[in-house]
């Protein structure tokens, strides 16, 4: 498994001796084994030159950039190396065929809802009283199948999300992290800041995985394709937000790894301080490397790998080989 | 799989070995490297290094492969020169 590099320091990254070399402002020098790097997340102020970008392209390494407020800025998305006209055609055709687009969009919502339910049921067994919320979401899940347009489907998804987030205050036993309502751009409380940060990371991991397949990230199904941004990664991320992101949030808060001191609220909204951001990423990376026994593959796969497998399943669906069933945790 | 690699080559070829190994693995000590590679990456690395090595002059390269690090224990006495490269 290739590794992910997170750069928090400011400095310069360059090509040296046919590998990558990072020199930070305070003088630390490090060689990064280029053959074993999957992607680079840049949080600090890092200089690049064209020679480096060319090198990253030949090695198929994606670079994701985050700004001072830890917001996702964009990615250096190297030239597509899995260039399949056939796949793009199939993907676009599925988007344009109403029935097929709706079918796959429903699968994403269903996957997200079922994974959320698994988490709520887990905490319910642990003595948090979540029965009413579970039943509420289960009734919404029934509604998914009979939706006839993307708009109404999005509406059901919104209702599921709202009930699901409502359960967060029961799961997290820290009075600093209460949940009123989901606020974005900028988040208004600690928990919202953490959710926003975690979601934006899941989007980027999904984008990196899509890059390794023949899929085109510009054509999404649940999230409408538009002129501005990648949308397929947002779709796939729906399934993995609860599985990877939210569970990491509960872990860092309930174990006290992150507390209110890790946030900065002197600005317009609330953001994670670099220290908190790093702590969160360390736990998240651990979760991504953690392996589970896959029920159909019958072998150990990491959470990170699950995202790629999801891309392959979508490819199979688009090529009309298989029915697409979203990944649902089976524990 | 987890790899421990070390070499002993003539001074003339030291820097060539160092540069090639640095592209795949993490430097630990002089002429010692560690890291996780796939089977194919390892094959490529070995074939590249084999081109540099000169057997007649007594160069040697030794690689330890481990399926996982589960049953290993890393003991360091003195300064550990291996640094974190995931978070920098």
Automatic annotation (TrEMBL), chain B:
Any one GO MF annotation of this record: hydrolase activity
SUPFAM superfamilies, per database record: TTP0101/SSO1404-like (SSF143430)
Keywords per UniProt: Antiviral defense, Endonuclease, Hydrolase, Magnesium, Metal-binding, Nuclease
Cofactor(s) demanded: Mg(2+)
Top-rank taxon, per record: Bacteria
Family matches, as InterPro entries: CRISPR_associated_Cas2, Virulence_VapD/CRISPR_Cas2
Enzyme Commission number, as recorded: 3.1.-.-
GO BP of this protein: defense response to virus; maintenance of CRISPR repeat elements
Binding-site residues, Mg(2+): 8
Oligomer status and interactors: Homodimer, forms a heterotetramer with a Cas1 homodimer.
Function description: CRISPR (clustered regularly interspaced short palindromic repeat), is an adaptive immune system that provides protection against mobile genetic elements (viruses, transposable elements and conjugative plasmids). CRISPR clusters contain sequences complementary to antecedent mobile elements and target invading nucleic acids. CRISPR clusters are transcribed and processed into CRISPR RNA (crRNA). Functions as a ssRNA-specific endoribonuclease. Involved in the integration of spacer DNA into the CRISPR cassette.
Recorded family membership: Belongs to the CRISPR-associated endoribonuclease Cas2 protein family.
Alphabetical list of NCBIfam families matching this protein: cas2 (TIGR01573)
Protein name: CRISPR-associated endoribonuclease Cas2
Species: Thermodesulfobium narugense DSM 14796
Species lineage: Bacteria, Pseudomonadati, Thermodesulfobiota, Thermodesulfobiia, Thermodesulfobiales
Gene from which this protein is expressed: cas2
């Amino acid at each position: 498994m290739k590794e992910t590099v997170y750069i928090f320091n400011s400095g310069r990254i360059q090509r040296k001796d046919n590998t990558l070399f990072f020199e930070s402002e305070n003088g630390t020098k490090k060689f990064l084994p280029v053959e074993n790097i999957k992607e680079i997340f840049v949080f600090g102020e890092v200089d690049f030159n064209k020679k480096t970008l060319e090198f990253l392209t030949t090695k198929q390494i994606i670079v994701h950039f985050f700004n001072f407020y830890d917001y996702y800025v964009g990615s250096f998305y190297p030239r597509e190396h899995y260039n399949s006209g056939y796949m793009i055609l199939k993907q676009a055709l599925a988007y344009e065929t109403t029935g097929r687009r709706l079918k796959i969009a429903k699968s994403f919502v269903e996957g997200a809802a079922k994974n959320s339910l698994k988490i709520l049921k887990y905490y319910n067994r642990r003595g948090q009283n979540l029965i009413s919320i579970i039943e509420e979401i289960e009734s919404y899940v029934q509604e998914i199948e009979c939706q006839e347009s993307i708009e109404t489907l999005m509406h059901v998804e919104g209702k599921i999300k709202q009930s699901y987030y409502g359960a967060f205050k029961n799961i997290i036993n820290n009075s600093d992290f209460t949940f009123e309502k989901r606020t974005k751009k900028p988040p208004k409380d600690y928990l919202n800041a953490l959710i926003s940060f975690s979601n934006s990371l899941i989007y980027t991991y999904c984008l990196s995985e899509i890059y390794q397949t023949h899929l085109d990230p510009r054509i999404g199904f649940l999230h409408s394709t538009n002129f501005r941004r990648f949308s397929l990664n947002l779709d796939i991320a729906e399934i993995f937000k609860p599985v990877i992101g939210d569970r990491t949030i509960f872990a860092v808060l309930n174990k006290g790894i992150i507390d209110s001191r890790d946030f900065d609220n002197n600005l317009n909204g609330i953001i994670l301080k670099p220290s908190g951001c790093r702590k969160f990423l360390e736990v998240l990376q651990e979760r991504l490397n953690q392996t589970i026994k896959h029920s159909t593959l019958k072998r150990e796969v990491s959470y990170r790998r699950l995202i790629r497998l999801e891309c392959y399943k979508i490819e199979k669906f688009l090529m009309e080989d298989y029915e697409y069933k979203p990944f649902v945790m089976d524990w | 799989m987890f790899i421990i690699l070390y070499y002993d080559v003539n001074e003339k070829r030291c820097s060539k070995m160092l540069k090639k190994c640095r592209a795949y693995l993490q430097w630990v000590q002089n002429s010692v490297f560690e890291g996780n590679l796939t089977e194919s990456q390892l094959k490529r690395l070995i074939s590249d290094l084999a081109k540099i090595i000169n057997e007649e002059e007594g160069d040697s390269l030794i690689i330890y492969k481990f399926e996982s690090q589960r049953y290993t224990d890393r003991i360091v006495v003195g300064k550990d020169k291996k640094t974190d490269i995931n978070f920098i």
